[in-house]
């Protein structure tokens, strides 16, 4: 669909404009969803004790939480094309807040697992955020807007490590038993998500021109029947480029989720760090989302302006290959200072690759941006599940190779480190393959021409707007 009035510049202070106001609200909503999605993580030791969970049961709950998001992202991508991102986000926040609050009342492992599955659905917020910013920003800056909103939203997955314990301290100070602090803290996160749903409905709109319902009534965009004939989820699913980008996003966001999920354990086992030291380092790397993902989107836009749609693809391919090579290199390093330097480079490259992916997505099929975004976004979670399975199996094999009569704390740590290291090496190779496969994403001459014209027009509008500002 072609939407008029898209912003040609990401001017963050212009909150009176519907584009920038929506940008801020959708980024904050995404932050809160990721905050709630992983909100239970800092409390897992207390949860395991409270519910009598084993280590394997705790690991399974993590996989379940990520798996549920795969289906949710596919579904919400399709619904965004039909109903618009505003209503989809509103209902997802309102309904998604219920299991976040509900987990505070669980008494058994099965109840906990069910709530984590449902909470995983709010991880689909990423898709709606990307659709909404794609509808609000012009081709010359859509990659930057997508990457920045997603990067800042992703911070919620790291900020909870610091903020949730503070909330727990607050509720304990109010008289709540320390053993129940995790329950009240999750309840607080759920209430905030519910309130965010009301804010989203009140203060955002689907496009710069208005909401889908009104635009359909005015004949400015296709009706549901017309859209079904011209393009929908099946159209997006039949486009091979959607699935290549599915693989690409599995190789960046999916790998980031899994690598940082196991990085605490790896740093402790390989470099003898304490849990606190390892956790702090991982949280710091997550904070790189403030700028790293934006950098990927910005450079993707620049390549697109200079070389067209193929330029966006070329940059994505380049950064994916670099990411894979860095992760493979990191897996073989045993010198701690060098490992930290390489890990910083990995954090930068993986987040840049995530941003670069969604500089390409909006141009695959403008008639079903939501469905394409849903498919690609689901790839991230599918990649996380498969990567987690690989690490689990490699660690099992590594532990099984230790002579039972020689098992000590040191041998157990060495086996854990070896299993994770081998997994990182394999994953690095897979990422390089995904990067090379990106070269198969092609656009027709007509697509290139249309995108070039739209980009040029957006640049001219941005230049005119800049010239009209008072000196």
UniProtKB/TrEMBL annotation:
Any Pfam family hit: MFS_1
Keywords, alphabetical: Membrane, Nitrate assimilation, Transmembrane, Transmembrane helix
Cross-referenced Gene3D superfamilies, in alphabetical order? MFS general substrate transporter like domains
Residues in coiled coil: none
Q: Which InterPro entries match?
A: MFS, MFS_dom, MFS_trans_sf, NO3_transporter
Q: Tell me, what is an example of a GO biological process annotation in this record? A: nitrate assimilation
Q: Where in the cell is it found?
A: Membrane
Name of the protein this chain belongs to: Major facilitator superfamily MFS_1
What family does this belong to? Answer: Belongs to the major facilitator superfamily. Nitrate/nitrite porter (TC 2.A.1.8) family.
* Transmembrane stretches, start-end: 21-40, 60-76, 88-106, 118-138, 159-178, 184-203, 243-261, 273-292, 313-330, 336-361, 368-391, 420-441
State a GO cellular component annotated for this protein.
Answer: membrane
**Recorded GO terms, molecular function?**
nitrate transmembrane transporter activity
Specify the Major facilitator superfamily (MFS) profile domain's residue ranges.
22-446
Q: Topologically, how does it sit relative to the membrane? A: Multi-pass membrane protein
Identify the CDD domains for this entry: MFS_NRT2_like
Q: What is its main location?
A: membrane
PROSITE patterns per UniProt: MFS
